[in-house]
Design goal:
The strands form six sheets. Strands 15, 16, 17, 18, 19, 20 and 21 form a seven-stranded antiparallel β-sheet that branches. The model has no long low-confidence stretch (mean pLDDT about 90). The protein is an alpha+beta fold and about 675 residues long. It starts with a helix and ends in a 7-residue tail after the last helix. The structure holds 8-methoxy-2,3-dimethylquinoxalin-5-ol. 8-methoxy-2,3-dimethylquinoxalin-5-ol binds next to strand 3 and strand 8.
């Protein structure tokens, strides 16, 4: 064998042995006999003896036990995983077909390969010499996450395929979960009092992003191949349809409802046919993908921006169903706003069972003239929250009841107020109201605020119910004994939660301000306030006029901030938090005079050492501003290994780009910042 062929075989053997180690040590589900395993190992050893310079420390010949995990490490796609353009109606699809014919200079109808568009999660599988060596999520298209260990547990992903020893091929497709599996998983989660997934796509994505591959192994996931990325050492066929046949022959599952169609009429007929089948399919699909079948034509058509010109996803219209409003309840949010929610007869719409539909506010109810008992048309598209589109007046029952705003808060009985000119009605109970307290604590603990891992709604409600927590600062005084006395709180969970609380005490000034939940103060305003004042006392004592000197702060925000700090109750909570040990790095001088004052950074991609929020906090603490889009005024773009569109834009505008190393140097020595 040539050196190149030896090299490919060596990599394929290593991958295959790792796969068997993984099945043996981690999953406890070996699929080959010891003798077969020994034969593979022997072949690898012989190759390594022939090429000792290729022996690496992580080769299976040098290690024992489970292979090292590279879970969720960033993976660069050799060929970017693009997105698809969408068509939402017949005109848009017709225009696509016309563009294709014009660009190809053809009068005759085009042949397309049509496939269902699964509503799942795109992944890429790399096979070296026929062995699965890596699986990665799509991520931002240039860079995804390594999910090899988890994908290896999926039965529908072959780990060996019949391809030449010197080949390397990337198979792409979608990971999905059936409606049935989704329902089973949620039923079990509900029984255990755990969070349920909103839809099969989230369940599939959540199952693939498990730290423990055994959890993924327990989830029924399917992989449908739809194409290839980088291909080496394999003679490609002439058409997309032939690729699909080839992938099927190799052992991949390819969509059953795929068809070659020629011309607009056939394409449209197929789209409508698939739409009719949609409800009866085991998986969610949200449209049909049409690809110009001839690969030579695909090549001529090329790409525009981030999508191929030779393919389009013709989406199904948002699904609509008719159901009946059984009741309307008012939910109380963090700021006391009362939101009417219609409890409807549960119906499956767009992949989820809809039982609750927000009615937003009283104006919306009046505009749509919704009454209890009405038959309504509900719609849900993608991740969009379900909505009532219209009432069916002809079906209104005689006993339909008008919806009235309660005079008292349904949670605490306080008076409900609604200003004449405002759509929103509010409970006046403030933190006396348990719903407002619950939501305030939820906000306080949320990821972008104090980031208290593991403190979900369930625990918060229980702590409030048992009077363990009345205000946010009480969280930091929770005792282990009280926690483990709670139902379903195991000692390990209690320890984890206490650990998260301890970690959360170290925060940043901006996060702390955001966590307080001051009306109209979102993340960005909280950061601006933190940057401007640099110090809590200075902020608490600022008058409205001074507050308006802060970027993004107008009279309304200034009034809310000022009013918040004037409340003795709020000052008590803040004192309680500081006494409990909540702290943040305090700049020696106001942060807007810090070493990076006046400089603006944008973050993109993932950094190896810190999360994006941590990077943002570190820059802000040095006085820099962090914004979300690159402009000529941006000092530098901090980019992980691949940066997507922001990187393109920075390059176009001549904005300096800092990689992870340069960024680490900047934090150590801010004088290295670009001008
Ligand atoms: O996101 C996708 C779903 C399905 C695709 C796709 C597909 O084919 C059936 N094909 C391509 C070429 C791309 N995304 C980029």
């Amino acid at each position: 064998m040539s050196d190149a062929a030896d090299r490919k075989r060596l990599e394929a053997l290593r991958a295959e042995i790792r796969q068997h180690d993984f099945r043996y040590y981690v999953l406890d589900r070996p699929t080959i006999s010891d003798a077969e395993y020994d034969a593979l190992m022997r072949e690898l050893q012989e190759l390594e003896q022939k090429h000792p310079e290729w022996v690496t420390r992580d080769s299976p010949t040098q290690t024992v036990g489970a292979p090292p995990s590279h879970a969720f490490e960033a993976v660069e796609h050799r060929v970017p995983m693009l997105s698809l353009d969408n068509a939402f109606d017949e005109d848009e699809f017709t225009a696509f077909d016309r563009r294709v014919r014009e660009r190809l200079g053809r009068d005759e109808p085009i042949t397309y390969q049509a496939e269902p568009k699964f509503d799942g999660l795109a992944i890429s599988l790399t096979y070296v010499g026929g062995t699965l060596t890596r699986a990665a999520t799509r991520g931002d298209g240039r860079q995804g996450e390594d999910v090899t260990d988890n994908v290896r547990t999926m039965d529908s992903v072959p780990y060996r395929v019949d391809l030449p020893g010197e080949s390397e091929i990337e198979v792409r497709g979608e990971v999905v979960m059936t409606h049935q599996a989704f329902a089973d998983i949620n039923r079990r989660a509900e029984k255990r009092g755990e969070k349920v997934f909103a839809n099969p796509r989230n369940a599939a994505a959540g199952s693939l992003r498990q730290k423990d591959p055994r959890v993924t192994a327990s989830r029924p996931l399917e992989f449908f191949a739809y194409g290839v990325g980088a291909v080496e050492g394999v003679e490609p066929p002439d058409t997309q349809s032939a690729w699909l046949d080839r992938l099927e022959e190799l052992g991949f599952t390819v969509a059953e409802h795929r068809r070659r169609v020629t011309g607009l009429e056939e394409a449209l007929a197929h789209y409508h046919e698939l739409g009719e089948k949609r409800d009866g399919l085991a998986f969610d699909i949200d449209g049909a993908v049409f690809k110009v079948d001839a690969l030579a034509d695909q090549k001529r058509l090329g790409f525009v921006a981030r999508a191929p010109r030779w393919a389009i996803a013709y989406k199904f219209p948002a699904e609509e169903k008719i159901t009946q409003v059984r009741d309307v309840e008012f939910q109380v949010g963090r700021t006391g706003a009362l939101t009417p929610v219609a409890r409807v007869e549960p119906v499956a719409v767009g992949g989820v069972t809809v039982a609750n539909v927000t009615l937003h506010n009283m104006d919306e109810i009046e505009r749509k003239d919704v009454r209890i008992g009405d038959w309504v048309r509900v719609r849900r598209a993608g991740d969009v929250i379900p909505e009532i589109i219209e009432v069916l007046p002809e079906k209104r029952p005689d006993d339909a009841r008008e919806i009235t705003l309660p005079e008292q808060c349904p949670e605490c009985g306080s008076e409900v107020m609604r200003d004449e000119d405002q759509a929103v009605a509010r409970c006046t109970g403030g933190l006396y109201c348990p719903a407002q307290r619950r939501e305030a604590i939820r906000h306080f603990a949320s990821r972008k605020a104090m980031d208290i891992d593991g403190l979900g709604e369930k625990w918060i409600s229980l702590f409030l119910e048992r009077d363990l927590v009345k205000r946010v600062d009480d969280l930091f005084r929770l005792e282990r004994d009280d926690l483990i006395a709670l139902p379903r709180m195991a000692a390990k969970s209690a320890d984890n939660l206490l650990d998260s609380l301890e970690k959360a005490k170290k925060t940043t000034f901006g996060r702390f301000l955001y966590a307080l939940g001051i009306r109209e103060v979102g993340e960005v305003t909280a950061q601006s306030l933190a940057r401007h004042f640099g110090d809590l006392d200075a902020l608490m004592n600022a008058d409205e006029e001074t507050l308006q000197e802060v970027e993004d702060v107008g009279p309304v925000v200034a009034r809310h901030v000022h009013a918040f700090f004037q409340q003795p109750h709020n000052r008590e909570v803040i004192d309680g938090l500081l006494e409990a040990g909540v702290h943040w790095p305090k700049p020696d001088k106001p942060a807007d005079k810090g070493p990076l004052a006046g400089k603006t950074f944008v973050l993109t991609g993932s950094l190896p050492e810190m999360t994006r929020d941590e990077a943002s906090d570190a820059l802000t603490a040095l006085g820099a501003k962090v914004t979300s889009s690159v402009s000529k005024k941006t000092t530098a773009l901090v980019a992980g290994e691949a940066g997507g569109s922001k990187l393109d834009r920075a390059e176009k505008l001549g904005v300096p780009v800092l990689d992870a190393d340069a960024f680490a140097r900047l934090l150590e020595d801010p004088s290295t910042a670009p001008d």
